[in-house]
TrEMBL record, chains A, B:
Entry coiled-coil feature ranges: none
Protein name: PadR family transcriptional regulator
Transcription regulator PadR C-terminal domain residues: 90-169
InterPro entries listed in its UniProt record: Tscrpt_reg_PadR_C, Tscrpt_reg_PadR_N, WH-like_DNA-bd_sf, WH_DNA-bd_sf
Pfam family, one: PadR
Record domain Transcription regulator PadR N-terminal: where: 7-77
Length: 178, 178
DNA sequence: GGGCCCATGTAAGAGGTTACATGATTAA
DNA sequence: TTAATCATGTAACCTCTTACATGGGCCC
């Protein structure tokens, strides 16, 4: 149940409405923990019911601003330090690799070249983000940079791997259908 | 809907029962696309209903052996070559990094050291698998090696990143609570 | 006979996606 | 006045997890 903790984490920075959270997810967490509008409003209700957040202000158009409570803050810290991150990652990109023997080597190479290109593009996008975010020594900047650095290293690794893999397939004897 | 394609991919190697598939998922796909017993049996029924697989033999204890059909094979190849892999990855490990500013720097460092250790352990496990799988030049060996190589590079990258990140936090001014 | 593995299935519930539905406020 | 944005909520559906439920066959 990481959605609730993602929301608590954002609310730890200050009060926000469901609409605000939606924007925050889009700009800062979309690559790590995407969330939809319907999820956010439903979960906000549950968080309020369990006392981890509370409504602190109401604005125009029915706007409700929520703030994290002490219990919410405790739950967030507990989740960060005491709950084991989920190691299992599902990757349909990698799943296809397992079955590349069912297509022609040409198609397999094309597939891996596409992955290399996608990784390169992703890397490029992250370098731009890296340039934008501040070089400050405050905690927020440091942790933000650490997260972006993960993405940079991941996309670089994936590009290199895919390019290496294309070479490997070149070693395969030409006619390898089925 | 990658589960069905994972199952088709395994059945492309030869007929198997639900029970067989469960074992195959456990030994070969657990790190890429885990599946549970209840999922497999339910999906086998749906695959048979849509004609992508069919029962080819019945054995003791109600065992039903399924084989992929021509339509199933076509669907598998279509999925591999024409369907864009899902780029969005959820990572609660990385999500926590975004919120490390809410805990003490000591705890943040500990968290990242734990991630480095977990990655190192994962890398070690994969090197053993790498040693076991054949060095053959046939398609199955080559693609298997490519998939394992991804895991090796990923876990190496993650270990290096986490160790680098610990150093970054050391640059933070000591008292940075809240 | 008893324990282990083989073998299949169902049900409840959590989490997530997509679509539907509605309306207020603001700025050009 | 009208289009964009702010703002909240519900419903249907899919996927995945966990637990329940049952029983046959094999080997010691």
């Amino acid at each position: 149940m990481s959605l609730r903790h993602a929301m608590l984490g954002l609310l730890a920075r200050g009060p926000a409405s469901g609409y605000d959270l939606l924007k925050l997810f889009e700009i800062s967490l979309s690559n790590v923990w995407p969330a939809t509008q319907s999820q956010l409003y439903a979960e906000l209700g549950r968080l309020a019911d369990t006392g981890l957040v509370k409504v602190v202000a109401e604005g125009p158009r029915g706007r409700k601003e929520y703030a994290i409570t002490d219990e919410g803050m405790a739950e967030l810290r507990h989740w960060i330090t005491d709950v084991e991150p989920n190691r299992s990652r599902r990757s349909d990109m990698l799943l296809r690799v397992f079955f590349l023997n069912t297509v022609e080597p040409d198609q397999a190479r094309q597939y891996l070249r596409d992955q290399a290109a996608a990784a390169a593009k992703q890397h490029e996008g992250l370098t731009k983000i890296r340039e934008i975010i501040a070089d400050g020594q405050d905690a927020l900047s440091v942790y933000g940079r650490i997260a972006v650095e993960w993405g940079l290293r991941f996309s670089a690794m994936q590009r290199e791997w895919a390019e290496w893999a294309v070479e490997e397939i070149d070693q395969l004897p030409s006619p390898t259908p089925e």
